[in-house]
């Protein structure tokens, strides 16, 4: 979640595109996005998948012949959720990424929550940085951030809809 929010803050074009999709699907700002809306939010799905796509982890290149071989990605270091949107504007998985026997058993619970939380944050708040956003990683099993994201959430929706 923290990496996804950091990428959205660092990429205002992506944040704006996500908000345009949210505003169109939610038909305004009368209610907050929930898990049942995610199927209609392909760009939000693509943002989550792009956040998970890694070519370098803690300074080490993923070896050639893996599913994340940098030769398979155009501009692999750029944050571009459009990689996971097909020509019809639908969410797609070009390499079957994130599936199969080695996928974590909790992923089916975590992903819907991640999608809905990320979408709600983008829908409801402007995130103003409190300092500089550093994208440095530190060693660890799940590629933790070296420095936490510290920002000030300002309401984007006035008045805030009831839940």
UniProtKB/TrEMBL annotation:
Location in or out of the cell: Membrane
InterPro entries, sorted: Cyt_P450, Cyt_P450_E_grp-I, Cyt_P450_sf
Membrane topology: Single-pass membrane protein
Alphabetized UniProt keyword annotations: Heme, Iron, Membrane, Metal-binding, Monooxygenase, Oxidoreductase, Transmembrane, Transmembrane helix
Record carries keyword Transmembrane: yes
GO cellular component: membrane
SUPFAM superfamilies associated with the record: Cytochrome P450
Protein name: Cytochrome P450
Organism per entry: Arachis hypogaea (Peanut)
Organism phylogeny: Eukaryota, Viridiplantae, Streptophyta, Embryophyta, Tracheophyta
